[in-house]
C-alpha cells in the first residue's frame, strides 16, 4: 500500500491523468465520514470557546505573568507552517525546479489553511474579541500587531490567488469532467475557470499573472514571519530580546512547513492513490530540502542559544538554565534533538527519504517545531526581570487547562477541515501542469 | 528634709509605675540611658524646630501632642506623647533611648534623625510638661504686648530675596517690630508648600527677617511663583499670613513630551517614516493584487479572441 | 482609656467609610439615589460623611445628592489629554519601606482590584547573592520611553502630556502585548469578571482611575490620575505610614512626602541620596525614582509575607 517497489513505467495519457486525479474527489467514501468527524470535533471544542467567551480568559491557565500561552505558541506554529506555500510554489517555482509541479498545490492548500486559521487563533486569544475591528479603526502603525494583521491578511489573499490561478486550467477540466458534481460546485468551477480553454494567449497571460504573484509573495512571506517574530523581539524580555529573531523564525518556518508538506504528500499519495504523481522522487527531493532547511535552522539555534549561554548575562542565565537543565529541559532538548538534529542525520541516508520513513520523521519534526514554539513563548514569560511575588500559586506556573487544549484542538481540526474540503473540491495535483511537464498534449474543450 | 523624702517617695513610685508600664509595652530602658540629659535649652527656637521635626517624623502615628489623635494600631496604640502621664513617667534620656531604638511598630530613628533633631523633639515634647512650664517661659524672648500685628512683605526681584516685617502696636500706641519670631516662607507647589525659609528665619530686633530665594527654583513661564509667608507658630499672634505672587522663580516653559513624534506616541504622533513605510507597502502590494485580479477578468475575452 | 476606644471606633468608621467612598471613586451614583429615595420616606436621619479636608460631618440623609459625574466623552477627552504643564514624578525611599503594604491596600481599594491584583506591589529584593535584601514598592514606572505604549495596536494605552501612562479599557482589545512588553511586570489583566463588577456596572467609566474595571482588558497603575486632577496625592502615596513616597511635579522641582506632607526639592532629594531609576540600562526612562536602601530605619526581617511579622 505504502510505496511501490519500483516506480512503474506507466504510460501516462492526458485521459489517465485526468481520471487518476479527479476520481478520488468524487469517489472517496471515507472522506465524508472524516469531514463529519472534524465538524463534530469543532462543535465540541467550540463549546469550550463559548465557555471562555462567557467567563473570560480566566478559564485558561494564563495569568498576569504568563499572559501569552498555548494560543500564541500555536499561532506562531500555524504561521510557520503556512510559509511552505511561499517556499515551494514561489521560490522553487521561480527557480523553475520541475519536481515540485505535483506537490505545489498541496503546499498552497496547506498555506491557505494554516494562515487563515492563524488569523483566527489570534482572535481566540483576545480578551475582547468583540473589539477586533478596533485594530482597523484605531490601528497604530508603530505596533507589530497592526503589521501582523495586515501581513496575514495579505498573505492569505495572495496564497489563495496562488492556489486558484494556477488551477484555472484544471478547473476548466473539472467543469467538463465532474458531471456528478453538485450544481453549486459546477457553478463554482464555471466561475473560477474564467472561460479558460488553454489558448496560447490565455496561457501566456495567466502565467504572467502567476509569476507576478510568485514574486509578490516572497516579501510578504518573509514579512509575515519576521513581523510575527517582532511580537517577541520588540519586547525587553530575556530570551526574546534578540536581533536574530526574524531570520530565526523564517528558518524555523521552512522546517515546519516542509515537514507538514511531506506529511500531507504522504497522506494524499496513499488515500488518493496518487503514487504515479507524488512519486519517490518528490519525497527524496523534499527530504534533501528538509535537511537543508534544518541545517539552516540548526545554525540559527546555535547562535540563539550558544551566544547568550556563553555570556550568561543576568536574566538570561536563569532563563537558559531552566531551558538547558531545568524545568523545560525535556521539552527543549526533545524539540532540538528529535525535531532537528536526529532528522538531519537520518535524512542524509537515502533509505530514510523513502515515503514512509520520511513521513514518520516529518511527524517528529513537526511535533518538535510545535514544542519549540511553546518553549519560545512560555519560559520567557516565567522569567521576568523582577521577582514574581504576592500572587497566588497558579501565577507562578503555567499549565494549559482543558479549555485551552480544546480550543487549540479546534484550531487544528479547522485546519484539517479546510485542507480536506479544499482537496475534495479541487484537484490536489495539477492536471494540466503535470501533463505539460511530461510533454503530453493538453486539450481543454470550451 | 520633709521635701526630700517626699520627692524620693514620689520618684520611687513613679519609677515602679513607669517600670511596670514599660514592661506591659515591652520597653526595657537601661537605667544608664534614662539618666541622659537634654543638652539643649527649651528656647522658643528649639521648641519650634522640634515641632517641625515632630510633625514630619512622629505625627503620622502619634498624632498631635495632647490631642490623643494617634493612629489606632493594634495591639498597642501609639502613646500620646504630650500627655502628662507620659511626660511624668519618662525622663528625657528614656525618650531619647526609645526614639533611637524603636520597638514593634515604632521604627528606630537612630540613623534617620540626628542627635540634635532628636533632642529638639524632646524639647518640644517637654514644653507640654506642666511641671516644667516655668522654665520654658523664662527662656522665651519677651516682646511687649501688642495689638494690630501686621506682616509686611518686600520683594527684591533683582537680588532674588524677600523680606518680611512683623510689627505690632504697643499700649502706648507705638508700632514696634516684634523680635525673635520664626517666620515661614513657603512656595506653593502642586501638593504642598516648599519651605525656602533657610537656616535662620527669625525676626531681628526691628521685626525684620530676610531670606534668599533659591536661585534655581522653577516658576511658571514668567518665573512667577505663589508665595505664602506666615508666622510659623500660630500660638503667638494667631494665624498671621500673607500670600503673594512673586517673580522670583526661574521662568520655565513646560516641555510637552507629546510635541514630538515618537515610536511610543499615539497613531497621530507616529514617526513619518513608519507611516510612509506602512501605507506605501500596503498600497503597493495591494495595487499589484488588484492589478492581477483585474487582469484575470480579461481571461475569458482572450478565449473569444482565439475564435 | 474610654476616650481611646471611642477614638478607635471613630477611626474604624472613617476607615470603612473611606473604603466605600474611595472604592467608588466617583461615588456610586445609583446607590446614593436609592439611599436618598429610601430616606425620603423616613423622618430626618443623619449620616456621617467625610469631607475633603478630613472632617467628619453629619448630614441629613434626605439632603444627599449623587455626585455629578462628567459624561463619558468628557472624561475620556480630558483623561487622554492630561493636565497641561505638569510632569509628574514619584520618588520611593527604599530606606524607609518596611513592607507595611498600606499602599497596596489603598491602591486596590481605589481601583477596585482584588487582593491578588497589584497596580503597585511591594517586592522583597536582593540584587545579588551577598547584597542586602530590601523591600521595593513597584508601581508602573510611567516611562518616558514606554515599551508598552509602543506595542499597543489600538492606542488603548498611551502617554499623556503630564507623563502619565494610562489605559483605556473602553478601547483595549485584550491582546496583552503591553503585558509582554513591560519589563517591570507592572500590568495586570482582568482574566475574569472584575471584583464587584455587578455593583459598579452602572458607573460611568473613569479612564483616570480605570474604574469600573472590565473583564478581558488590561489594567495598570495610573498615579491615581483622578486624584491628581483634584490636587490630591496618589492613593498609595498618601496611605503610606512610613514616609516612603514622595510625589510631585518635575517642572516645579518639588515633591511632597505623602506621610509627612513635607515638600522638598526633587533635584536635591535625588542628588543628596544618589537616587536612581529601575533598570535604567533598558532605556525606558522611568518617572519613578528610587533612593537606595541605605541607613535603614529598621532591620530587614526576612520573609515578611505573613501578617504577624509586619509589626
Question: How would you characterize this protein structure?
Answer:
The complex is a heterotrimer of chains A (446), B (307) and C (311). With 446 residues, chain A is mainly α. Chain A has helices spanning 14-26, 29-55, 70-82, 84-94, 104-125, 134-138, 144-164, 168-177, 183-192, 200-233, 245-271, 280-311, 316-325, 329-347, 355-382, 402-425, 431-437. Chain A has one domain: Formate dehydrogenase/DMSO reductase domain (Formate dehydrogenase/DMSO reductase fold, Up-down Bundle). Chain A has 17 helices and no strands. The longest helix of chain A is centred in the middle third of the chain and has 34 residues, at 200-233. Mean pLDDT of chain A is 91; it is low at 1-9. Chain B has 307 residues and is of the alpha+beta class. In chain B, strands 1, 2, 3 and 6 form a four-stranded antiparallel beta sheet that branches. In chain B, strands 5-4-7-8 form a four-stranded antiparallel beta sheet. In chain B, 39% of the residues lie in helices and 17% in strands. In chain B, helix 3 packs across helix 7 (115-126) and helix 6 (92-101) crosses helix 7 (115-126). Chain C is of the alpha+beta class and 311 residues long. Chain C has ten helices and 14 strands. A six-stranded mixed beta sheet of chain C has the order 12-11-10-3-14-13. A two-stranded antiparallel ribbon of chain C has the order 1-2. In chain C, strands 4-5 form a two-stranded antiparallel ribbon. Chain C is globular and about 55 Å long.
Amino acid at each position: 500500500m505504502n510505496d511501490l517497489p519500483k516506480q512503474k513505467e506507466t504510460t501516462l495519457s492526458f485521459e489517465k491523468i485526468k481520471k487518476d486525479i479527479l476520481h478520488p474527489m468524487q469517489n472517496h467514501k471515507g472522506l465524508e465520514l472524516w469531514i463529519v468527524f472534524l465538524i463534530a470535533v469543532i462543535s465540541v471544542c467550540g463549546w469550550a470557546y463559548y465557555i471562555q467567551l462567557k467567563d473570560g480568559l480566566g478559564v485558561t491557565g494564563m495569568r498576569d505573568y504568563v499572559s501569552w500561552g498555548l494560543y500564541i505558541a500555536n499561532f506562531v506554529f500555524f504561521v510557520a507552517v503556512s510559509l511552505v506555500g511561499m517556499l515551494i510554489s514561489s521560490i522553487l517555482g521561480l527557480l523553475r525546479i520541475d519536481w515540485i509541479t505535483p506537490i505545489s498545490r498541496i503546499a498552497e492548500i496547506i498555506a491557505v489553511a494554516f494562515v487563515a486559521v492563524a488569523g483566527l487563533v489570534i482572535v481566540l486569544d483576545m480578551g475582547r474579541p468583540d473589539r477586533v475591528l478596533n485594530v482597523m479603526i484605531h490601528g497604530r502603525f508603530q505596533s507589530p500587531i497592526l503589521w501582523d494583521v495586515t501581513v496575514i491578511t495579505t498573505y492569505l489573499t495572495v496564497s489563495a490567488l496562488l492556489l486558484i490561478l494556477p488551477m484555472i486550467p484544471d478547473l476548466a477540466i473539472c467543469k467538463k469532467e465532474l458531471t456528478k458534481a453538485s450544481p453549486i460546485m459546477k457553478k463554482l468551477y464555471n466561475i473560477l475557470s474564467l472561460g479558460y480553454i488553454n489558448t496560447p494567449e490565455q496561457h501566456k497571460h495567466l502565467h504572467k499573472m502567476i509569476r507576478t504573484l510568485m514574486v509578490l509573495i516572497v516579501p510578504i512571506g518573509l514579512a509575515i514571519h519576521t513581523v510575527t517574530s517582532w511580537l517577541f523581539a520588540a519586547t525587553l524580555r530575556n530570551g526574546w530580546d534578540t536581533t536574530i529573531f526574524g531570520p530565526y523564525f523564517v528558518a524555523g518556518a521552512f522546517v515546519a512547513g516542509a515537514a507538514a508538506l511531506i506529511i500531507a504528500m504522504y497522506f494524499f499519495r496513499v488515500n488518493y492513490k496518487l503514487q504515479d504523481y507524488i512519486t519517490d522522487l518528490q519525497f527524496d527531493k523534499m527530504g534533501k530540502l528538509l535537511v537543508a532547511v534544518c541545517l539552516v535552522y540548526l545554525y540559527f539555534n546555535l547562535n540563539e542559544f550558544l551566544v547568550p549561554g556563553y555570556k550568561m548575562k543576568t536574566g538570561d542565565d536563569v532563563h537558559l538554565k531552566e531551558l538547558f537543565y531545568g524545568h523545560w529541559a525535556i521539552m527543549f532538548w526533545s524539540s532540538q534533538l528529535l525535531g532537528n538534529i536526529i532528522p538531519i542525520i537520518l535524512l542524509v541516508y537515502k533509505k530514510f527519504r523513502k515515503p514512509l520513513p520520511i513521513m514518520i520523521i516529518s511527524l517528529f519534526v513537526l511535533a518538535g517545531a510545535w514544542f519549540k514554539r511553546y518553549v519560545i513563548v512560555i519560559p520567557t514569560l516565567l522569567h521576568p526581570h523582577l521577582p514574581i511575588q504576592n500572587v497566588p500559586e497558579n501565577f507562578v506556573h503555567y499549565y494549559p487547562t482543558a479549555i485551552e487544549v480544546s480550543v487549540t484542538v479546534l484550531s487544528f481540526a479547522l485546519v484539517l477541515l479546510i485542507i480536506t474540503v479544499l482537496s475534495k473540491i479541487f484537484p490536489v495535483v495539477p492536471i494540466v501542469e503535470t501533463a505539460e511537464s511530461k510533454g503530453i498534449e493538453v486539450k481543454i474543450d470550451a | 528634709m520633709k521635701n526630700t523624702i517626699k520627692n524620693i517617695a514620689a520618684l520611687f513610685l513613679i519609677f515602679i509605675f513607669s517600670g511596670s508600664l514599660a514592661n506591659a509595652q515591652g520597653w526595657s530602658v537601661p537605667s544608664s540611658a534614662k539618666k541622659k540629659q537634654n543638652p539643649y535649652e527649651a528656647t522658643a527656637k528649639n521648641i519650634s524646630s522640634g515641632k517641625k521635626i515632630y510633625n514630619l517624623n512622629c505625627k503620622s502615628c502619634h498624632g498631635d501632642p495632647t490631642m490623643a489623635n494617634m493612629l489606632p494600631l493594634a495591639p498597642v496604640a501609639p502613646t500620646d506623647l504630650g500627655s502628662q502621664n507620659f511626660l511624668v513617667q519618662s525622663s528625657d534620656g528614656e525618650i531619647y533611648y526609645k526614639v533611637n531604638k524603636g520597638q514593634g511598630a515604632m521604627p528606630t530613628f537612630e540613623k534617620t534623625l540626628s542627635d540634635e533633631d532628636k533632642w529638639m523633639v524632646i524639647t518640644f515634647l517637654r514644653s507640654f510638661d506642666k511641671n516644667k512650664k516655668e522654665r520654658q517661659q523664662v527662656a522665651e524672648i519677651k516682646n511687649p504686648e501688642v495689638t494690630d500685628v501686621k506682616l509686611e512683605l518686600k520683594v527684591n526681584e533683582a537680588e532674588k530675596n524677600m523680606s518680611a516685617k512683623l510689627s505690632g502696636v504697643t499700649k502706648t500706641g507705638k508700632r514696634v517690630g516684634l523680635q525673635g519670631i520664626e517666620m515661614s516662607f513657603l512656595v506653593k507647589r502642586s501638593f504642598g508648600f516648599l519651605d525656602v525659609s533657610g537656616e535662620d528665619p527669625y525676626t531681628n530686633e526691628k521685626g525684620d527677617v530676610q531670606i534668599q530665594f533659591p536661585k534655581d527654583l522653577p516658576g511658571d513661564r514668567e518665573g512667577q511663583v505663589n508665595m505664602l509667608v506666615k508666622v510659623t507658630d500660630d500660638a503667638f499672634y494667631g494665624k498671621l499670613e500673607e500670600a503673594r505672587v512673586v517673580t522670583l522663580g526661574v521662568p520655565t516653559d513646560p516641555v510637552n513630551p507629546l510635541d514630538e513624534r515618537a515610536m511610543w506616541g499615539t497613531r497621530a504622533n507616529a514617526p513619518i517614516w513608519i507611516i510612509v513605510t506602512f501605507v506605501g507597502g500596503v498600497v503597493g502590494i495591494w495595487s499589484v493584487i488588484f492589478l492581477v485580479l483585474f487582469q484575470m477578468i480579461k481571461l475569458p475575452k482572450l478565449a473569444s479572441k482565439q475564435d | 482609656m474610654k476616650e481611646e476606644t471611642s477614638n478607635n471606633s471613630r477611626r474604624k468608621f472613617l476607615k470603612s467609610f473611606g473604603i466605600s467612598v474611595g472604592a467608588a471613586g466617583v461615588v456610586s451614583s445609583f446607590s446614593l439615589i436609592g439611599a436618598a429615595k429610601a430616606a425620603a420616606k423616613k423622618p430626618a436621619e443623619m449620616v456621617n460623611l467625610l469631607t475633603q479636608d478630613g472632617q467628619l460631618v453629619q448630614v441629613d440623609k434626605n439632603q444627599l445628592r449623587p455626585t455629578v459625574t462628567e459624561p463619558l466623552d468628557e472624561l475620556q477627552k480630558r483623561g487622554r489629554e492630561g493636565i497641561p504643564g505638569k510632569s509628574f514624578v514619584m520618588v520611593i525611599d527604599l530606606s524607609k519601606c518596611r513592607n507595611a503594604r498600606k499602599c497596596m491596600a489603598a491602591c486596590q481599594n481605589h481601583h477596585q482590584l482584588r487582593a491578588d491584583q497589584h497596580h503597585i506591589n511591594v517586592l522583597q529584593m536582593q540584587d545579588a547573592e551577598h547584597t542586602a535584601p530590601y523591600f521595593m514598592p513597584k508601581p508602573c514606572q510611567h516611562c518616558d520611553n514606554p515599551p508598552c505604549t509602543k506595542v499597543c495596536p489600538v492606542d488603548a494605552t498611551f502617554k499623556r502630556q503630564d507623563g502619565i501612562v494610562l489605559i483605556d479599557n473602553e478601547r483595549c482589545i485584550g491582546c496583552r502585548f503591553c503585558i509582554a512588553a513591560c519589563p517591570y511586570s507592572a500590568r495586570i489583566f482582568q482574566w475574569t469578571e472584575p471584583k464587584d463588577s455587578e455593583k459598579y456596572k452602572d458607573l460611568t467609566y473613569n479612564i483616570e482611575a480605570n474604574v469600573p474595571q472590565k473583564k478581558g482588558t488590561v489594567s495598570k497603575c495610573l498615579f491615581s490620575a483622578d486624584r491628581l486632577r483634584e490636587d490630591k496625592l496618589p492613593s498609595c502615596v498618601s496611605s503610606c505610614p512610613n514616609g516612603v513616597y514622595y510625589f510631585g511635579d518635575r517642572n516645579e522641582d518639588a515633591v511632597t512626602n505623602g506621610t509627612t506632607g513635607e515638600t522638598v526639592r526633587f533635584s536635591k532629594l535625588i542628588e543628596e541620596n544618589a537616587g536612581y531609576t529601575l533598570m535604567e540600562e533598558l532605556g525606558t526612562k522611568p518617572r519613578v525614582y528610587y533612593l537606595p536602601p541605605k541607613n535603614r530605619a529598621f532591620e530587614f526581617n526576612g520573609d515578611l509575607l505573613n501578617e504577624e511579622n509586619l509589626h
